[in-house]
């Protein structure tokens, strides 16, 4: 299940997946995997995403809705 919170936060800042990936020093596919619920970022990466997107790390990756999306795909 998609991480809509992450997608919305990225779009709110006006970034493409590629732009966010470039800022974080990773591949566009990494951002896509996080957004589509195929993988989760490390704590360090999650913190960096939250900083870049000016969002709360809990809202992006630890809220119940987001956690449910990750557990329903396994």
List keywords for this structure.
74 residues, mainly alpha
Which SSEs are present, and which pair or pack?
Blueprint: H1 4-12, H2 17-24, H3 28-35, H4 43-52, H5 57-62, H6 64-71
Helix pairs in contact: 2-3
**Percent helix:** 55-70%
Approximate shape: globular
Using only CA atoms, what is the Rg?
11 Å
Can you say what the CATH homologous superfamily is?
Answer: lambda repressor-like DNA-binding domains
- Whole-number mean pLDDT: 90
- Residue windows where pLDDT falls under 50 for at least 5 positions: none
Strand content: under 5%
H/E order of the elements?
HHHHHH
Q: What is the CATH first-level class name?
A: Mainly Alpha
Q: How many helical stretches?
A: 6
Number of domains: 1
Q: What does the main sheet amount to?
A: none
Structural class: mainly alpha
Task: Describe the protein.
This protein has 74 residues and is mostly helical. The chain has a single domain, classed as lambda repressor-like DNA-binding domains (434 Repressor (Amino-terminal Domain), Orthogonal Bundle). The protein contains six helices and no strands.
Write a concise synopsis of the structure shown.
By secondary structure, the chain is mostly helical. It has one domain (4-71): 434 Repressor (Amino-terminal Domain) (Orthogonal Bundle).
């Amino acid at each position: 299940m998609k991480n809509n919170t992450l997608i919305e936060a990225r779009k709110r800042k006006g970034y493409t997946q590629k732009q966010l990936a470039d800022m974080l020093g990773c591949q566009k596919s990494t951002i896509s995997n996080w957004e589509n619920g195929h993988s989760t970022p490390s704590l360090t990466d999650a913190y960096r995403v939250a900083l870049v997107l000016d969002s709360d790390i809990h809202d992006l990756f630890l809220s119940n809705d987001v956690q449910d999306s990750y557990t329903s795909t396994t």
